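I am writing to request your help with a piece of structural work I have in hand. Thank you for your consideration; the sequence and its tokens are set out here:
=====
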Amino acid sequence: MSRSGWTACLVVLSACGSAVPGGGPSLVRLASRGAAVGIGSSGDDLRTGWYPTEPALSPASVSAPDFGQLFSVSVDGQVWAQPLLANGALLVVTETNHVYALDPATGVALYQRALEPPWNPADVGCGDLVPTIGITGTPVIDDRDPQNVTAYFTTKTYATGTSGPAAIFMHAVDVPTLAERPGFPVQIQGTSDNQTNVSFDATHELQRPGLLMLGNTVYASFAGHCDVAPWKGWVVGVKSSGAITAMWAAEDQFNDGGGIWQSGGAPMSDGPGTFIVATGNGEVPPAPIPGNTPPNILGQAWVRLHVQGNGKLLATDFFMPYDAEALNVWDADFGSGGPMGLPDSFGTPAHPHLGVAAGKQGYVYLLDRDDLGGLGTGPGGGDRVVQRIGPYGGVWSRPAAWPGSGGWVYYPTASGGTTSEGSTGMLNVFAAGHDGQGMPTLSLVAMAPDAFGFGSSAPVVTSDGTTDGSALVWVVWMPDGSGAGAQLRAYDAVPESGTLNLRWSAPIGTGSKFNPPGIGDGRVYVGTRDAKVIGFGAPVNQPLAGTPLNLGTVQLGSSSSGTAVFTARRDTSVSALTSTNPDFALGTPSPPLPATLASGQTLSVPVTFTPSKAGIRAGALVAQTPDGPVSTSLSGIGQHPEPVLSVSPTTVSFGGTSVGQVLNGTVTLSNVGGGDLVINGILSPAAPFAATGLPGPGSTLSPGKSVTLSLSFSPTQVGNFVDNLHLDTTAGPADIPMSGTAALPGNLVVTPPGLDFGTVRVQQSQTLSFEVKNTGGTRVTVTKSKPPASNVGFTAPGNLNEGTTMDPGESKTLQVTFTPAVAGPASDKWTINADGQQGLLTVALSGVGATDPSGLGAKDGGCSSVPVGTLVWPLLAALPWIARRRRRHGD
């Protein structure tokens, strides 16, 4: 098996999409530098997950009593692609190759259609996504012509019937009728435009990422199933007329890998005729290579693809981490994180167009999208990037960004959480900033208060533009990879005291891995693994419509005033008005209460904001009507009149690493007061700590401004280390404690290295176990765990979840059961890897199924008394062990 195989396995695991724009007359999409077309994954071309025209999903509105579940409907098949809203219909696709157009307010099926029979992943022995695979990647919808709105998506099925070689088709259907467009479906097949003797193999490929549409061409990306060769990363372009125009492969004819799966995130486009994909494990070239001369082997990379005049794709720029070869050894996909471009407000004149990347290793990279950096072209053969910080836990996700309140990035992780048991991570929050030399930075400043399980979704952000206090971060939270007990959660977008406030949550049943909610028209939609589509929002029959009111920045001890307005949607009355936050005082409304309003008439309410403390303040104005409460949001910012130094985080704990490794972090200094703050001086810590990007003595932070310092911990010996970063400012001194510990590297060992079940009667079972133990000195994260799934009788009652962390000395016992269905020898394996020293571990499994294993029926004591199979099958099963032993001992 190629080192590059890991990406393909997680392709099937990943089921993330990204949130989607609204539909109907109120649909507004965020314009970004790209030229992508239509409604698809993550809300905009840059894949930020930001929906800036959703004032009805304000924090106050979501907290109000009139917000909740609108409907829950059943569909045929699991939903691993994100629901999309367009042309008055909610488009839902499933893993049984069913497609639905639902009423977005009620969930009632307007149209539905069954397509080809789904494909059985047991055909290649992959158990990541079961029992069937149909439509996995999030569709893209071309809505440029309101009379011909078209949805594009791929199905996986069989070339003929319900067995044999697989086939993958691209469909183009009308929204909402789901009628097929002329020239479709199109079978995805052919040879690579850029690699010699490389052909597309539908049986071993999975279309996991969301689709991208540029101009009149739709691009679908592919990786494999559970490392089952042959497979490669592919990008295939299909024109709206039904012709295949591009077949691009990430690896050459000699290597598997370079899979493009991105935990379901779509390719990112930031300009006409160009886009970026992220690849996973695969062959990588020797460093250094400039970014503008991409090689023909592109595993573990961000790759920029350019659409040429003939429609074919050409790689024009790339970035690979300097340790890409080590990532292959650890099965630590760089491409497990979907690519995201940041809005231009995050950039600087020197680096105006930024991108954010992270993978299973847990480092977060800030990249220059105009010059990705290549491989090993930085100082000392390292990365030439804008910033590299972490590690903060393995990423199986796509981040989200919000440019409001200074700029924020939200990244869920699936490992490195608060416990070493199971697969846990956190929802990390990064603040945008600049260091003392003017370089753009990201700084980890907060996280959600509880752990996130493996499979939790990518986040999306809703807001009323960049209005302070209007944004929420939405995510599907899962306790573990099974998805059972999943919740839809909404967090305030701006953290307080290092924590994201959980504002609202609701149970949704069994979540689909990595699959985020869809957004549109003030509603939130979730598709689940237990074949449900659930809609959340405020009741559609609200008698009033309210406009959010932002009262700006107000110094403590002062006030500002404004007017909130409700407009009657139909004849109604208002009996009472209340504010949920005493910082917002209500005046006498016009007309006075009780007020009887005709349809279209307005009710004006004076509001005075007197902040009780510094920071963002928010509340709701609630109007009582005969049909129940109706609310709108109130927000403002309280500010101290004098300069105030804010340090985030207040302490920097690097945690543990192995000797010779480097951990990176940041600390952000902000002036949250009303006067200028002068930095008199900064005293850096001693080795093994270091601080860079420091502002010079006399540097000034005006109100609302901040500066980010880059920190590192690079131990050269075993031990525990502590020090301080000392600040002297006109707002007072501050000390930032720093700590880190270093130990010998981690190392996983399996005992025994194989399980031989001997002879087992057909349809009976035998269970054996093996132990996985960390014998090294540092915690390791499991980056790969593929139990047997080849349908020859071996099954695993439990699993070692990918993302699991194991402390030094910790062990886990895993079981395998052999239940032969037919007579004869059988073999399989369980492959495991982690970010330690051990390399890829393979537990060989062997056994023999027999109808008469005891040899009953023998007539004498000679050789003829023993059934032939009883002698031959154990010998055949032992041959692989004998061959390995001969190689090991040189005989």
User: Anything to note?
Assistant: The chain has four helices and 65 strands.
